[in-house]
Amino acid sequence: MTSTSVDTTYTYDDLAGLMSLMTGDEKHGFAATSTLDALWVLYDRVLRVTPETAEAPDRDRFLLSKGHGPMAYYAVLAAKGFLPVEWLSGFGSYGSPLGHHPDRTLVPGVEIASGSLGHGLPLGVGTVHGLRARGLTGPRVWVLIGDGELDEGSNHEAIAYAGATGLDRLHTVVIDNSTATHGWPGGIAPRFAAAGWSAVTVDGRDHEALYEAFTAPHPGRPHVVVARVEKVVQVEPSHH
Q1: Residue 129 CB: number of other CB atoms within 10 A?
Q2: Residues sharing a CB contact under 8 Å with residue 61, sequence separation 6 or more, in sequence order
């Protein structure tokens, strides 16, 4: 993997410009931009991982289950120095490490290959157990899924298991843009809460609300943040 250093000159305002460098997957544009704010708050203020510690055993793990349309993910990783910004313009092209689904063997900072719905949360459960088996009880595991992924039964098995076993190192962010086929009375958060999770619903564009929800204490229980996203934020690209 290419070793990079953090470029601290990039900010949230630069992300639209970084995303504009990636073309060819416009059909997943909303899938990407719906995750942008949650991803930025996580990498900017919450996750204990940097380009220099991306292989450290005690790092936090972030698993992008919502791997279809990863442009926002790549933009945030580039902004934080995990990968060169120059890679973005080659997105999806032959020979580029930045595919339409992230590949953990090609992209620095990526923990899992993803994009097929319903895989990330079960992998998150397994990651918590794997860390525990190695005596690593400090790292937190974060999984970002889309509400449409909750149509997959594998997620409900993971939700039930994690709640029943009190996996408090497991954290999930559900980007809720009303794409789930089924849904539940009262919304997504009560579905998790009924299985024993700590659960909160916030505005998925409100950075302070996201940060407060991400850092809320939840002793003895896994934690889910449902981030409601109603529409794409229209911002002009920054000329960094």
Answers
A1: 15
A2: 49, 111, 127, 131, 139, 140, 141, 142
